[in-house]
Prior knowledge:
mainly alpha; about 50% helix; extended; nucleic acid binding; Transposase-MT_Hybrid; Transposase
Amino acid sequence: MFEPHGPKRLTDIVKGDETWFPFFIIPPERLNRISRPSRKQVLPHPAYNPNLAPWDFWLFPILKDRLAGRKFDRIQDLAKAVNSELQTITEEDYQCVFRKRQIRLKRCIESHGEYSEGL
């Protein structure tokens, strides 16, 4: 089962061959089952569009660069290193990401899903 926090979370996103999975994807049939009681409509995810990348996609290249070449004997050591690196990201960095995300989403809506350059 998927765990949102802790060392087990890292094993969900970082595999032994160093393949990174930057976000957890709920299978559509499960998402529909979950949302049915609330009567919320689940829209299918559109075709690939960089403007719709998960908001946290920018974190993974940063972490990958900062942790490159380091070896961790235990998943707890990796978790500690990742958490340490995440602590160095400032509130201003996050605010900038959210502002850009809002602009990208607005452009995506206005262009009916077409890709927008420049962000």
